[in-house]
Every structure is written in C-alpha cells, then in structure tokens.
Amino acid sequence: MDSLFAKADAIRPLAKRRKTDKDDSRGKSKEKKKKDSADDQTLGSVALHTALPKSFRSLPEPEGSTKAYLHIHNKKLRTQLTRQLAHSARAKALVKDAELLLAEDAGKIEVEGEMEKTWRVGQEDVIKASGQEAARGRKEYALDGGPYRSRYTQNGRHLAIVGKTGHVSTFDWQTGTLHSELQLRETCRDITFLHDHSHFAVAQKKYVYIYDRDGVELHQLKSHVEPTRLEFLPFHWLLATVGNAGYLKYQDTSTGQLVVEHRTKLGACNTMTQNFHNAVIHLGHQNGTVTLWTPNLPDPAVRLLAHLGPVVSVSVDPSSGGRYMATAGQDGQVKVWDCRNWKGAIRQWTARGGNAELEWSQRGALAVASGGTVNIYTKPSIQSPFAGVVNPPLYLTHPIPHRPLTSVRFCPYQDILTVGHSTGLSSILVPGSGEPNFDSSEADPFENSKARREREVKALLDKIQPDMITLDPEFVGSLAPEPKLTTATHDTHDIPFSRLPRMERLRVSGKADETEDVSGGEIEGEDDDGETKHRSSKAEKEKKKMRGKNKSIKRYLRKQRKNVVDPRAVAVREKLEKQREERKRNQAIASGNAESQKPSALDRFKRPS
Amino acid sequence: MKISVLQHAPSSHLPTRPGDPTPTSRNLDPLMHPFAKARERTRALNAVKLERIFAKPFIGALEGHVDAVECMSRKPESLNEVASGSWDGGLIVHDIAQRRHILKIESAHKGKVSGVCFANDGEKLLSCGVDRNIKLWNTRQQVDVDENGAGPSDLQKPLSVYPGKFAFNSIDHHRSDPLFATASSIVQVWDETKSAPISNLTFPTSTETITSVRFNLSESSVLASIGSDRTFTLYDIRTGKAERRIIMQMRSNALAWSPTFPTTILLASEDHNLYTFDIRSLTNPTQIYKGHVAAVMSCDWSPTGLSFASGGWDRTVRIWEEGKGTQPEVYHTKRMQRVSSTLYSADARFVLSGSDDGNVRIWKAKAHEKLGIIDTRERAAIEYRESLKRRWKMDAEVNRVARSRHIPKPVYKAAELKRTMLDARKVKEERRRKHTRAGDSKPKAERKKVVITEQT
After folding, report:
1. SS3 at position B424
2. Of the four listed, A298, A375, B252, B253, which is most buried by Cβ atoms within 10 Å?
C-alpha cells in the first residue's frame, strides 16, 4: 500500500518539491525522508517532459486585484469583476512589456558640458552628424508666387504646397515623385490633404475646391465662401473651413453633406487649428479671443481672451494628448495655455518680429517662426509654469532671410520642419521632433497602394459620427453620471415600489452599492497632496460637507488652487516632510523611545541633506 | 556634442523580395491611437448592424403532411433523421440534411398521430394515436423508392401493434431499456416485447387526462408527466408509483428535461410563459420565461442545455437562453400557422418547427450564423465581431440595434395589449394595497404565484 502511495506521490507538481528542498528550517530526519521521494526515478524522468512551457503558464496575479471588490455581496458578480480587473491589470503590464519592441530611436542633441548650447548648432552640423537618409530631409524649394503654405499627409510621406498667387503642387518628397502641379491663377489661401494623398482641398479666392491626386478638379464647395483656413478631421471625415465671413463650416467628405455651419460673430478669421486628440477646432480671432468649437454646439465650447491684438497663430500639443495650446498674437506675445485650466497662460514670452507662426511637433517641440528666424523650444521648459515674460531656453534656431515666414509644419515621423516663406519653402532638420515608431495600423510612411486602399475602406467603416466630438473624448464607453434628481421627498416615495427606477428601488431596499465611485476613475488614485483619496459614501460626503463658516474664503482659495503639479512645490513639500521626520526622530531620541543611530564609517559617503 | 537625427531604414520597412508581405510595425502608445474607444464603438455598432442584416434564420420547409404537424422526434445519435406525425394520421421520417423522406406512411393511425419516438436502437419507430393503438415501425424497410424518397405506402405495415384502452396523448422511450411510457388518462409503461402494459402509474387522487410524458435523460427510471388538470407529476418506474405532484395556476402544454442538468425540467405553459423547475424544490420555478403572447404549445432543449426553443399559439418560434427570461429570438414567417411542435437538431445548430399548416420548417438556431465553409480569416473576423458585441452590449445605441426585431403586427399588437393589461393589473393591485390596512396584503413575488400546491 505504501509503495502505491509513493508511486502516486511521484506525480506531484514540480514547484512543491523545490520548496521542500530549499526549506532549511526542517529537521534533518525529515529532510532525509523527503529525499527518498525526491530522488524518485519516475519523477525525474517524467518531470522534464511534463512541465508546462513557460509561455503557457498563467501569469502571476496582479497586486490587489483580489481585495478590490470584497464589499460586493453577489458572488458571481464579484468573481466577474475581479477577473476583469486582473485582466486589465495584466494587459497593462503586457503593454509595458511591448515597449521593449519599439525598434527605432528618436533623434536628439546631447550636450556634454555646461558651456555647450544646443542652439549654437547650425544646420550644417546637424547634416554632418546625421545619416545619409536623414540628411535628405534638408531641402530648399525656391519657388515663385510665394508666400507659401504647406501640409503633410498623416503618414508624413507626401507634401502639398500652395503659393499665394495660385501655384499648387503635391508630391512625394522622399522619392521626389510629383503627383500634380497646378497654376490656379487666383488667390489661394490654404491647402490640406483629405484622408490621404489621393485627395486634397484648396481654399481659393471664392470657394473651396477638392482635387484628386492628379490635380483633376472634383468638387467645388460653393457653400464655403471666401475660405481662409482648412482643417481635415481624419477620424470623422470632416473638412472644416473658416473664411472671411467668419463662418465655421463642417463638410462631411464621405457623404458630401454640409454637416453644420457655425456663425462665429467675430469677423474674418485667419487662424485655425485642430486638436488631434479630440477633434475640437481652435479658432483665433481679430479681437484677441481664441474659441474652441465642436459641431454639436452652436456656441464655442470655450471662449478665451488670449491676446490684446489679433491672434495670428494657434497650435495644440499632440505629445501630451492635446493638453497644451500655444497662441501667438500680433502683439508679439507667444503664450502657452493649459487646456484643462484656462486661468491665465502657463508661460508667455515675446517673439521678436511679432506675428509668430506656431506649430507643435509629435514629440512636443514647439516651432516659433517670427521675423526672420525659426526658433524651436522643447518640452519641459515650455510647459512648466513660469511667472516672468522671459523666453524659455532655446533648443534650436535657424535664420531664414525671406520674410515673411507664413507657415511652419513638422513632418510626422521625421525630424523635419518645413517653413513656408515668400520665396518658397525650406525644410530644416530638428533632431528629436518626430515620433520614431509609427504604427502601421494608423499611419505608415512605407505603405503600398494596396495597403492605402485597405486603410481607406477601414477608416470609412470606423468613421466616427460628427456629434461625438466633445472636449473630453473619453466619455465614450464610460458610465453616465448618476442622476442627481430623485423622486423622493423627505426620503419617501409617492410612486409604488414596482414602478420606481432601478437605482431608486435598490436604494429603498438597501441593496444599492453606494460605495461605488462612479465619477472618479481608477487613474486618479493620488490627490494633489500625495495622499490617497478616501473613498467615502455619498451620505458620508453629504454629512461632512462644509456648511456655513468661512465659505467664501474657502471658495476663493479653492479657486486659486491650480490644478497643476508644480515640481518646485513638490520639492518644497518633500523637504518639509523630511524636516518633520527629522524633528520627530530627534524628539523620540530625546524622550528615550528610540535610540540614535550609531555613526558608521560609511556615513562619509552620504549626501548632505 | 552628440547629434543624431531620426531616420527610418527603408530596408526594414519594405518587403525584401517582391511578393513578400509588407512588414508592419506596432506602437501601443495610446497617444498614437486617438479616438481608440470611439472607433471601437463604431466598429461594435457596425458589427451589431451586420448581425441584424444577416439575420435570415429560415432555411427551408419540409412538406409532406396534409394536416397539422402534431409531434416530432429526433433519432438518437443521428444528425439528420427526424420523425413527425400529423393530425391526418400520417407519419414521416425526414432526412433534414437532404430534405427528403426516408419513410412516409400515409395513414399510420386513424385520426391524429399524437406521439412519436424512436426506440433506442434507432432502427425502430414507435407511434401512438387517438385510435387507441401504439404501433412499432421499422424505418429501414424501404426497397423501391419514389422520386420523393418514400416507398409505396400500401406495403408499409407495422412490426407490431399494441392495443390500448384509451386514446393516447404522448409516448416516450426509455433511454437504455426496451421500455416505453404512454400517456392517456393514466401513465402506462410498456415492454416492447409484450402487448399489454407492464405497469400503470397514477397519482392516487388523479382524475385527469395526461397530455405528455417524458423520461429523464440521466436518471432514466424517473418519469415526468403533465396533465389537463394543471398538474405536473413525477413518477419512478422502479417503485411503480407517482412520487410528487404540483398543481399550478394554468395547465402546461409540453415538457422537456434538460439534457445537461438532470434535475432541471422545462414546462411550456398555457399562461404564455415557460418555466424551468429544479425538481428538488418544486415550490417555485427557478426562472420564468416571458415572451410569447399566446399559449406555448411546445418546447425542446438544445443538446447543449444552454438554450431551448419553444413554439406557440401566437405563430412564432422563440429561442431562449437558459436563465435569461426575456427578449428571446423570434422566428416567424407569413405562412407559418400555430406552432404545435418544436425540436432542436442534435448538433444544436438548427431548430425544427411543425405547425398547423402541415409543414416542418428548418431554422438556424443562431439567426445570423453563416452556413457553409468559413476560412480562418473570416472566422477570426466573426470572432472579433462577437467579442465587440459582448464588450459594447451596455452601450445604449448598440443595445438598441441588437434588440430590434421585426415581428408581425398581430403579435406586436397582442404584446402591447398584454403589457397594458398587466400594467393596469399591477396599478390596481397597488391601489388596493394602498387602501388596505398597512401590512395586511403583501406583494407576492411572480415566482411564488405559479405553483398552487405541492402534493406527495
């Protein structure tokens, strides 16, 4: 019988055996007994071939997943929620792992000492240091009929240019293949590609015209009168135009319908940009206001007095998910705004020459073209709050003698900046501006014609309806806020139980899960003060809500508090925390609760705090 | 100073040889995928719309009967053979894959054929009728076959006839033994080799007519029956006694044992609902299935036990998921009359319905399922669409499209009327309760109302 058990013992999981081997605390005699079964020949021969391959083993349970839903009574629901949470946590970890697979490195300029400045680097130095392929990005297009504006396709492969007097051209700038070249012989104010390089729209003297890749005129959009700026919203298939009459119009390019037209009531508009992450249109106006528009609102979602004169350029930062906006005015100021909190600019400075053109690159480099130079600023400095009107540290600068500089465009997935000016265009290299790793499912610079066709169809199928555009694109698929209105008066209902809405019914029967925090996501686990948010029920919140005393001053303080993490404030807070700790420890030592640490020989290597 | 400029090597992004697939690269950074959620929702909406577009469940009708199809039975361990009996006394064994008749007997019984089932060897077929006879047929006797696949009817003679005293209403064969049970005014158990019943089962106080009888599929000596006096009775053929009985508010028209949960039984009731009971506690049903707008005439479980089909007096066939009491899939055609029998196919992919117009209709169990060969890419696309639907089913728009069904106007109007009446009843109940002394009349749960009493 014992031998039978021993045989059965042979098919024990491997992990268990290892554990007993490692465990030293066991007595010697026991160890010996165990050893007999550990040396089992059967197990040794079988284990090698029956162990599960590493890739098939289940991943370890993520931290805290089992405890999160303990308050839910329904066992089935609890299991399901726990499983979902574990799954999402695991997926997040796997996404982090996938970052290892990103193959290409971003460009950069590294200084080796305090005295070296990146802005001293000229284009010749950059070209010398860059590879042969990258150096081809530096180009000068000398063209008549300037000043020129330009626009890249989403994958950065094709370039469309338009001159003020009607010279339009689209081409693949990498291979130098010319798609179309037109002399329209009338004023052209802007150009944009539609979903890809197969169509482009030109804002001409009277109307907007759509041409195909070969330059054949396909449509004359008569409802867009005297357009000045064009934007194409790629995920919604909307062509947004604004003109001298001050109307913002959205045309659906997949169905051909004019979706909506908004009267801005702010006169002729020469400045427009889109937020790539929520498809909101930003307009800059003559009276210095910047307005944010969505198709479903007849009035601007946000109205902001940005400058004291006309606004000449607006750009939104794609590297931070559209969080920052930069504006430039005729008053010579350049301002950076936080789109979550419009109270004052984060940073402002004066651009020499006034009338600056702005553009933000994929990785967050801001190009400011004013006077006869293009200045490029980089990320942490332009987005951190700073009180004075001082230029942020310059990253690169490049003089262009052909004034005025009318447009700046970064090439997606390349370190290239194209500046349009009166005698053509110049492309310069800006190391570190382009995103190095593209995603073939979104935009692929190397796609062939078949892939392009495929993408066109897929994009059409995935077209988002225009009325889904909001300031917060994350509202899709999230829970609707719990209705504040209730039919209860003094907590008693007039309506019979069976006809109450579900939530009310649960509440009456005491089964409602009030601990569920619907409004707050899992993301904001930490507050400003670094302490974790206490999850309290609605009733508790109501009870603890401040009433009466000093309400106005509290409200004032609350409004003054900035919704921004300030690194200096964080540092000061840390320092204070450290001092408090020190004081506490000293007190403990003084009162004899704790003993002071003995000085060690290694203390000399400690950094003085 | 170190300067490096981003450059993509074309060699790593272009196919190395002509004809190779273009290499793809991925960047999972969420900033690279704007509107990911909104686009996925659009995809889910498209998926659910496609589902509704391709929801064409009707496959074909099997003709042959002159009058209403009363009963149907599936041959055990066979995917394609199904027997059906009709009010005109005809009996047909269909091959549903080829849509032809394997056996056709014009007048198997005088009057209607009230029950049909296969013996457990699969070769023999038992039928019972209101002519007080049970007949045993051989399904493999065909020699000369006509263009319809059926032989000359005058040659078809039963292997044996079991005469009874009363008109029979239902018949069911034992899972493994050569026994079968019939329902008339009492439940009788017969041996295939004996011409008289070997035992009579009845509840002591019963005066009813038994309308249907079924053997349990795993505990094969347990027998369940339903009767015209609103009862559901459990018997054990080993003890030869009726074990338990419940009396319900309305009579049941059909019953079916779950093939995977041996204690679960499904009853199709006259009160437009279906009920699943756990026979361990018969005081209340485990689930009420509401959807029909007239009496439910028949029901049958899917062999997986995850869903079941029911046919009703309202001329619709409905497919239910086990445990989900509302919003069943609805099948109907212009020409289909009252559905008196339904049957799931053995592979759970098809549903058969026999109706008053004398046709047996074949439906897909999943209305939008594509029949035929599906290649890997298409399969992957289908699975992706299914997961999208699951993921976005809480979205109002997606859910609205997924729920939408076109149903015939009479059914729609009847449902509307029924809803109005039930609401009015509920309001009246509430008003009455409001004006009685507090605590005097308590609301009773729907489930508790079904069973009036349980007798042992």
Report:
1. helix
2. B252
Question: B25 and chain A: CB distance < 8 Å anywhere?
Answer: yes
Tokens 């009870």, residue located: A543
- Is A302 buried (19+), middle (13-18) or exposed (0-12) by CB count in 10 A? middle
- Chain A residues within 8 A of B42 when measuring between CB atoms: 461-465
Number of independent structural domains in chain B: 1
Query: DSSP labels for B199-257?
Result: EEE--TT----EEEEEE-SSSTTEEEEEETTSEEEEEETTTTEEEEEEEESS-EEEEEE
Q: Quick one: tokens of A391?
A: 């230029």
pLDDT of A496 reads: 74
Residue B9 in contact with partner chain A when CB distance is under 8 A: yes
**What CATH number is given to the structural domain containing B94?**
2.130.10.10
Positive/negative CA dihedral, A100, A103, A106, A112: positive
The shortest C-alpha distance from B292 to chain A (Å) reads 22
Q: Is residue B93 part of a domain?
A: yes
What interhelical angle do B376-391 and B36-53 show, nearest 10? 110
Domain of residue B226 covers 58-364
Mean predicted lDDT score pLDDT of chain B: 92
Question: Which CATH topology does A118-186+277-429 take?
Answer: Methylamine Dehydrogenase; Chain H (2.130.10)
A18 against B340, higher pLDDT: B340
**What's the N-to-C CA distance of chain A in angstroms?**
70
**What ranges do the domains of chain A cover?**
1-39, 64-95, 118-186+277-429, 481-512
Contact assessment for residue B274 and residue B262, using Cβ atoms and an 8 Å cutoff? no
Judged by a CB distance cut-off of 8 A, whether residue B238 touches chain A is: no
Q: What distance separates the 2 farthest-apart alpha carbons in chain A?
A: 102
Q: Is B22 on the interface with A (CB under 8 A)?
A: yes
- Ramachandran sector of residue B372 (left: φ over 0; alpha: ψ -120 to 50; beta: rest): left
Task: Pick the closest to residue B173 from B234, B128, B239 (CA basis).
Answer: B128
List of chain A residues whose C-beta atoms are within 8 Å of the C-beta of residue B10: 133, 446
* Nearest-neighbour CA in chain A from B15: distance (Å): 10
Nearest 5°: phi and psi at B47?
A: -60, -45
CA dist A468 → A130, A248, A474, B184 (Å)? 43, 18, 11, 64
Q: If pLDDT is split at 50, 70 and 90, which confidence band does A518 have?
A: very low
> How far away is chain A from the Cα of B364, in angstroms, using its nearest Cα?
28
Nearest to A179 by CA among A165, A191, A164: A191
Helix B36-53 crosses helix B396-403 at what angle (to 10 degrees)? 10
- pLDDT at res. A281: 97
**Residue A180 scores a pLDDT above 50:** yes
Nearest to A464 among B25, B27, B39 (CB): B39
Residue in the block written with tokens 């005698």: A423
